[in-house]
Each structure stands twice: as structure tokens, then as C-alpha cells.
Amino acid sequence: MTYNFDKITDRAGTASVKYDLRQFIFKNPDVLPMWVADMDLETPDFIREAVVARANHPIYGYTFRSESYYESIINWLQKRHNWKVEKDWILFSPGVVPALNFAVLALTNPGDEIIVQPPVYFPFFTAVKEHNRHLVYNQLQFKGGKYSINFDQLEQQAQTARMLILCNPHNPVGRAWKKDELSRLADISIKE
Question: Largest Cα–Cα distance in the chain?
């Protein structure tokens, strides 16, 4: 399959947060909408065809996640990352933002300290604050043209924090944390 990544598709009038809210948010309809992680690439034909085929069925009832749903995740993780995942480890969430909120509610209590690493996707902050948890900032450090984790500060913060919400790959700095960085995070988490 070939895709045209240079094709521009007009999204105005489609209830697009990225485009249709520019005037409301920025008071300027001509601002370049680079403030939200919303792709401007067309969805591949085979995905659109599958959605249309399902939508053509005249009844939209309750559905379940089939075995093929789980198998596709398990097989992809095994093939791509050599990571053996069990079916019962897989939980469904309707999106990243609900998952952040579910995790905060399920794993912490009001007043608990939760560490976030700004600059980071803004729902990380609201998932903490909106549930009456205490937000602790482990500000990423910008050195030598790249961002890194302030591990010294994090070790101190982890002594009293209940949770760290990790963004990996990191949005917006564009880093995927390396194995040694993730290992150090794990060591801090286990130790504290």
C-alpha cells in the first residue's frame, strides 16, 4: 500500500478540536494548530472499510472484545518487543485520558502525592488535581539539546509519593526513555 503523506484534507466544520476551536481558544482562526496531538493523515482505506462494514449492520448493540482482540495485542507485543503478555493482564480503556483518571482513582487516595514530569500532556495534571490528590512536579531537565529526568530530585520525591505518572514516549518532548532510564525508575519505585 502507498499513502500520500503530503495530501491536505480540509477538516473545517467537522467538530475538530484542532481546527474548529482555533478562534475560541486563540482568538484567531488562522493560527497553525500545532497545539494538539491530532494527526492530519487520512485513516487508511482498510480501516475505514472495516468501520463502514460494521456500521452497515442495522443494529448497534452491546459488543464484547473477542479472542482475536486479545490475540492481536499479545502477538504484536511478543513479535515487536519480545514481551510475553497474558490475556488477563489486558484491560480495556476508552482512551488515554480516562485511563489516567481510572489509575489515579484505583491506586491512590485523596491527599496522596502523585509525581508528574513536566512539560507533559496537560491531562496528567488534571487527573491528579480533579481527584483531590497532591501534584508533585519532577521537572524534566533540558541539557545538551535533549530532555532528561532529574533522578536526584525524583529519589527524594518518591519517598512520600504514592504514584508517578510516566509518559513514554514523552509528549511533548518526543523522547522514548532508554532502558537504563526505565531501569533506574523501576529501582526507585521498588526501593521507595
Answer: 58
pLDDT in tens, 18-40: 999 999 989 998 888 877 778 88
Q: Are residues 99 and 134 in the same domain?
A: yes
- Nearest CA to 63 out of 90, 94, 89 is that of 94
Nearest CA among 162, 171, 129, 164 for reference residue 150: 164
Give the domain extent around 81. 65-92
CA distance linking residue 156 with residue 135, whole number of Å: 15
pTM for the complete prediction?
A: 0.78
Q: Give the E-state strand segments of the chain in sequence order.
A: 113-116, 134-137, 141-143, 146-148, 163-164
